[in-house]
Amino acid sequence: MHKLITCLQEKNLTIATVESLTGGLLCAKLSAVPGASKVLKGGFVTYMSEVKEQVLGIEHNLLATYGVVSKECAKAMAIQGANHIHADIVLACTGNAGPDVLEGKAVGLVDMAIFFCGKVYVFEEIFPGDRDAVRQAVCDYLVEKVLALLGNTKNTGNI
After folding, report:
1. Sign of the CA dihedral running 57, 63, 64, 66
2. Contact 46, 21 (CB under 8 A)
3. What is the pTM of this model?
4. Theoretical Cys-Cys bridge with 81: which of 33, 59, 90, 109, CB 3.0 to 4.6 Å?
5. Are the C-beta atoms of residues 146 and 93 closer than 8 Å to each other?
């Protein structure tokens, strides 16, 4: 987290989060870093579908068609977060941290999106472990992906 906050400060970029399964953990971890107030604009916790619709403005038909655990939902969360918060980078995540199958989707399945420079990058991963392990893995994964986008790591993966 420290590396990301420092990088954002150096590049004069802002960041925000739109979270579901992490329940605000990502924003909390970012805000725990000294100096985060210079780059962290805020975040939304949209745990339930109705909040995704009512607060973010995600279309009901999108959620009904693809479900909340979907690439389409993650992408819409990132775009709507950018529309509302006006940050340079918006991190969005939705998924199933368990303990049960949700919408027919396996425990550990997570869809994530990063809004950056007018583009949206979408990722889907299955993270092993219990709820806490999955939620932590999502936070770490998104931070690494942003650092890759910003050119501060050699691990660019599929970006």
Report:
1. positive
2. no
3. 0.94
4. 90
5. no
Tell me whether residue 156 is in a domain.
Answer: no
Residue 157 covered by a domain: no
Number of structural domains in the chain = 1
Rg (CA), the chain: 15
User: Residue 115 is which amino acid?
Assistant: F
For the stretch 20-65, pLDDT in tens is 999 999 999 999 999 999 999 999 999 999 999 999 999 999 999 9
Contact by Cβ (8 Å): 109, 95: yes
For residue 42, being part of any structural domain is answered with: yes
Tokens of 135: 């939620």
* CA angle, residues 144, 146, 150, in degrees to nearest 5: 115
